[in-house]
């Protein structure tokens, strides 16, 4: 599966700072120190509807991670999946009378368009669950043969007891896990499971649903968590630098994925840092496809909203914060974009060397994008009130905002 075209990232003078970021597993801030190639896996969409602002906020956060790393002169190896077969996708296809494969292809294509418009840097590997199935089957067989998984009425479940580190990603107690499991795609109340939290690795074929050859597992399709594990292990290996997604993925998805990988390899940890973006709300409730309370990136673009303004609206909130999308948020972003573009359109201006370092410092401090925006605001206000004589300043500001914040002025 192909991703989307990459926008050019301008080179800046000097060098960026190592990223300090909040790690869900340790519940504290850690300094990431990748080698020459930084490795990141971000969980992708289930393509049964268009990209909403919650998606955009998540991918914006991890786009900033990439930009900080690139500014330190590292290469970035970024992998993202597409869950192009799953219950929500099949249910939506049946509801709307569409072929599930056509629905997935259409919404994935729209996601690519949205990511391109928002100048999100693409992954080097963009892998669909369906194309990953040949690599998933052997992993499930290995877990089963090692006693880390078991069969139940033709389905195969992972035993959470097989990983001594289970629970260390989300740091939740058993009751909280059980409640979230039921809410987020698990089946804790199914009779016959060894542990209510055990997640499905392989679902045996159901009548009327797609299925694939699973070798000794029989025909079926993969569970949600093993999909990402197979893709990450294949393209990144164990101990990659960042596992990313929204806060709703900490449990069960990232917790289970870590345990799958650790039981498979006998190594720890699956990822060095688990980084989670906050939720975006609309009218007091978290945006979600199930609730239908969504603001779509594509709809805003069709209405003529500049994608740079959408991106500034996202950047105006700290990535870990839960916040609410409103017309006022977008209006403020549009006004800010206008001020910045006016400021860099002049032939000269105040020196911007310190500004570049302020943006770098803000982003290195747990991706503090709001602080970075305020720094640019101050430079733009100084440009408007007093101006300056540095002929290179407007161009440097424009390049820095593009390179570090992904906003084209």
Strand content: 15-25%
CATH architecture of the largest domain: 3-Layer(aba) Sandwich
What's the count of strands? 14
As a whole number of angstroms, the C-alpha radius of gyration is 22 Å
Low-confidence stretches: none
Structural class label: alpha/beta
Indicate how many domains the architecture comprises. 2
Q: The CATH topology of the largest domain, please?
A: Rossmann fold
Helix and strand element order:
EEEHEHHEHEEHEEHEHEEEHHEHHHH
Strands side by side in the biggest sheet: 5-4-3-10-11
The CATH superfamily of the largest domain turns out to be: HUPs
Biggest sheet character:
5 strands, parallel
Which word captures the global form?
Answer: globular
Q: What would CATH call the class of the largest domain?
A: Alpha Beta
In short:
The chain has 409 residues and is an alpha/beta fold.
Per-chain topology:
Layout: E1 20-23, E2 28-31, E3 37-42, H1 53-71, E4 75-82, H2 87-96, H3 100-117, E5 125-128, H4 129-145, E6 149-152, E7 155-158, H5 174-183, E8 200-204, E9 220-222, H6 224-235, E10 240-246, H7 250-265, E11 271-277, E12 280-282, E13 285-286, H8 297-302, H9 307-315, E14 323-324, H10 327-344, H11 353-364, H12 369-385, H13 393-405
Parallel strand pairs: 3-4, 3-10, 4-5, 10-11, 12-14
Antiparallel strand pairs: 1-2, 6-7, 7-8, 8-9, 12-13
Helix pairs in contact: 4-6, 6-7, 9-10, 10-12, 11-12, 11-13
């Amino acid at each position: 599966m192909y991703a989307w075209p990459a926008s050019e990232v301008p080179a800046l003078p000097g060098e960026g700072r190592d990223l300090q970021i909040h790690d869900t597993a340790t519940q504290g801030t850690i300094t990431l120190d990748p080698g020459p190639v930084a490795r990141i896996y971000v969980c992708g969409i289930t393509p049964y509807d268009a990209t909403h602002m919650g998606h955009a906020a998540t991918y914006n956060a991890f786009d900033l991670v990439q930009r900080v790393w690139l500014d330190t002169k590292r290469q970035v190896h970024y992998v993202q999946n597409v869950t192009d077969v799953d219950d929500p996708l099949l249910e939506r296809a049946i509801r709307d009378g569409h072929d599930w494969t056509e629905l997935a292809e259409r919404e994935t294509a729209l996601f690519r368009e949205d990511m391109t418009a928002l100048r999100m840097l693409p992954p080097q590997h963009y892998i669909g669950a369906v194309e990953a199935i040949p690599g998933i089957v052997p992993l499930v067989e290995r877990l089963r043969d090692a006693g880390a998984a078991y069969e139940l009425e033709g389905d195969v479940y992972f035993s959470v007891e097989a990983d001594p580190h289970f629970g260390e990603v989300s740091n939740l107690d058993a009751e909280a896990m059980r409640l979230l499991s039921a809410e987020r795609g698990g089946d804790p109340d199914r009779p016959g499971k060894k542990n209510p939290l055990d997640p499905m690795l392989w679902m045996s074929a159901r009548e009327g649903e797609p299925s694939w050859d699973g070798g000794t597992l029989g025909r079926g399709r993969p569970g949600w968590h093993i999909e990402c594990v197979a893709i990450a292990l294949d393209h990144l290996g164990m101990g990659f630098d960042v596992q990313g997604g929204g806060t709703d993925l900490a449990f069960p998805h990232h917790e289970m994925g870590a345990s799958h990988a650790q039981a498979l390899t006998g190594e720890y940890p699956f990822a060095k840092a688990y980084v989670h973006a906050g939720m975006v709300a609309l009218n007091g409730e978290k945006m979600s496809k199930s609730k239908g309370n969504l603001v779509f990136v594509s709809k805003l673009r069709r209405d003529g909203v500049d994608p740079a303004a959408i991106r500034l609206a996202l950047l105006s909130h700290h990535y870990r914060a839960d916040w609410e999308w409103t017309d006022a948020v977008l209006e403020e972003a549009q006004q800010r974009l206008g001020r910045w573009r006016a400021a860099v359109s002049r032939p000269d201006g105040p020196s911007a060397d310190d500004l570049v370092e302020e943006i770098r410092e803000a982003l290195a401090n747990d991706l503090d994008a709001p602080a970075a925006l305020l720094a640019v605001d101050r430079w733009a206000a100084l440009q408007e009130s007093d101006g300056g004589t540095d002929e290179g300043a407007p161009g440097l500001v424009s390049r820095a905002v593009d390179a570090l914040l992904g906003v084209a002025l």
